[in-house]
Amino acid sequence: MDLLGQLVEQICLGQQERVRELVREAIEQDMAVTRILSQGLIPGMDRVGEKFQTGEYFIPNMLLAARAMKGALEILRPLLAESGAKAVGKVVIGTVKGDLHDIGKNLVRMMLEGKGFEVLDLGMDVSPETFVKAVDDSVDIVGLSCLLSTTAPFLRDTIVALDKAGLRDRVKVMVGGGMVTQKLADDVGADAYGQDAALGAVKALELMGGAR
Amino acid sequence: MNGKQRILTALRHREPDRVPLYIHAINEKPIILLTRDLIPDLPDPEKTFYDMTDGEKFKMLEALFVVHEHYGVDGFTALEFGHEQRVGPEAVRDGWGVEYQLNRFGLPVARHHPLPERGDLKGYRPPAPQKENLLLLLAAKARFQDRKAVFWMMRGTFVLSWRLCGMENLMLKMFDDPDFVHGIAQMTFDYNVQMLDLLVEAGLDVLIIEDDIADKNFPLISPDQFKEFINPYNRRLVETAHEKGLKVIRHSDGNLWPLLDILLDTGYDGLNPLEPQAGMDLKKVKDYCGDRLCLLGNIDCIELLPEGGPDEVRAAVRQAILDAGQGGGLIICSSNSLHPGVKPENCRAMFEAVHDYGQYPLRL
Which residue of B has its CA nearest to A182? Predict the structure, then answer.
């Protein structure tokens, strides 16, 4: 198997140390950093997402793979910056006001990074005003996570706040989380709904026009 | 039949005089809205229990009992009280050293975990169960005598373990340090088994092992990890509780289909709360294992109880009884807690519909 194929496989297995070795090897071989990313790491995380959606992988496997990806990005990021490579898009993400559950949001962040997005994670219990403040010209998508039905009204409140701030036409809004359904996503006026973390990242890419 | 007889008969897969009604958990707001015509001067429904004065807390206890008495609810859930200390305006710490942030509805969410690494176990002393923390159970037994079945909500191995070391960390430790995960699980089991002695002494009827292990799509960990790290400890709890003469219910949110055979093999008497949105279709579950597991739950608290109307709720209760009531083994309950978003008129409709449609022999 060639080096990039090994990288895909080792990301999928979540073998952080092996992934870092392979990335270093690729750099030593003068492989373009964008190629390492787009043909090694991202396909690796894509495969993880697929396995998650088919029920072969579970959250712990995703965490392991994301840790390996993070290890690789630590090496690659300075080189990516030097090369002037651009992220697929930028997503601002957080759990809505009142919601203190973050594992789902963290998984979405990991899967988005795995697709080459830049992610600004605002954390938990994020007020509509904080989301609005975080949206500048560089932001393409706002991702809202919500586990509890009691905090669901803040999905709508956040989208309304973006609208009032004149930002709604400029950014796409994605929603997801424990109690969110496609129906609720439609009701609150979101542009996309991710049934799970992997699908959320796929939808984000679709919102960007499938660009990679 | 009284409520306790009704619940225990359904748990034995026989038909009681009617389908039993149960509340697994209920928040402050619905308690107040359901009883404010019956009890004067209840606290503001937006106030959380943590922010109430001692006098208001006593009133809430009375209101909670009245919900069960007035609406003919057959089972009462008790849980530990007094094991938490306030450590900030919006935070509490339990006897394990786990700190929780309170959301605006007073729901505590674990934020600080005392045992993230193996080294943290050194010098750590787990708490011992305290009889005085069974206050709610003792009060319920005194109030209802043996007229209602009293349930105890015991946190299971997965929930206690992740609270101690953090959920993502626990999941990664299953790969990195399996012995550590087993060590934590054993510690939680030891606590729970000691607690069982106190509960039996206090007259408990039904144990609920509350151990959320799934989201609406999938289990949170793989079935193999579940079998290795979690279920053996819960299984020993079930066996110990059975030896002590208790019935045991398994509570977990989410889609449990991938784990259902393991749960069946573990020997639980019942399963709760059967979330429709997570694929836990009542009829499907009944057909699959209704002869082995009593089913408690399924009346949708995500969309129906907050947004539907009383007629729709009555229809849902009737359908649930049609789908799973024949022969016993069904206890009607919402698909999770009666949270602050549910409409009181819908709760009333659910309670009343069980009395209207649930009489055995069923004539629907």
Answer: B277
Residue segments in chain B with a per-residue pLDDT below the cut of 50: none
User: Could you give the strand order of the β-sheet that contains A172-176, starting from the edge strand earlier in sequence?
Assistant: A118-121, A90-95, A141-145, A172-176, A192-194
Provide the residue type at B288 as one letter. Y
Query: Is the CB of A58 less than 8 angstroms away from the CB of B220?
Result: yes
CB contact under 8 Å between A61 and B219, yes or no, is: no
**Strand spans (E) along chain B:** 75-78, 85-88, 91-93, 99-102, 108-112, 149-155, 206-210, 247-251, 270-272, 294-299, 330-334
Instruction: Please judge whether A55 and B258 are an interchain contact, meaning their C-beta atoms are less than 8 angstroms apart.
Output: yes
Task: Report whether the peptide linkage leading into residue B20 is cis, meaning its omega lies within 30 degrees of zero.
Answer: no
Reading the block at residue A168, the tokens are 């709604």
Alpha-carbon gap: A138 to the closest alpha carbon of chain B (Å): 30
Contact B300, B316 (CB under 8 A): yes
Report the residue from B109, B167, B341 with minimal CB separation from A150: B341
pLDDT at position A210 is 53
Domains and CATH numbers, chain A: 3-83 (1.10.1240.10), 90-207 (3.40.50.280)
Total beta-carbon pairs less than 8 A apart between chain A and chain B: 69
Under an 8 A CB cutoff, do B168 and A103 touch? yes
From B172, B215, B340, residue closest to A60, measured CB to CB: B172
Nearest residue on chain B to A199, alpha-carbon basis: B217
Closest CA to B205 of B2, B61, B6, B8: B8
pLDDT digits (tens, 9 = 90+) for B16-43: 999 999 999 999 999 999 999 999 999 9
| Closest residue by Cα to residue B329 from B300, B288, B286, B298 | B286
- Give the span between the Cα atoms of A42 and A179, in whole angstroms: 29
Please tell me what DSSP assigns to residue A138: T
Amino acid identity for residue B184 in this structure = I
Of A58, A67, A196, the CB nearest to B219: A58
Phi, psi for residue B331 in degrees, rounded to 5: -130, 120
**In A56-102, which ranges are continuous DSSP H helix?**
59-83
Tell me the chain A residues in contact with residue B219 when contact means C-beta distances shorter than 8 Å.
58
Integer Cα distance of A189 and A193 in angstroms? 10
- With beta carbons under 8 A apart, name residues in chain A contacting B215: 104, 178
Q: How far apart are CA B39 and CA A146, in angstroms?
A: 35
The residues spanned by each domain of chain B are 3-357
**CATH-assigned architecture of domain B3-357:** Alpha-Beta Barrel (3.20)
Residue contact A60–B258, C-beta within 8 A: no
Residues in chain A, pLDDT under 70: 149, 210-212
B128 SS3 class: coil
For A82, counting Cβ atoms within 10 Å of its Cβ (0-12 exposed, 13-18 middle, 19+ buried), the class is exposed
CA of A39, closest CA in chain B: separation in Å? 26
pLDDT of residue A212: 40
For A196, which of B174, B217, B341 is closest by C-beta distance? Answer: B217
Chain segment B267-289, per-residue pLDDT in tens: 999 999 999 999 999 999 999 99
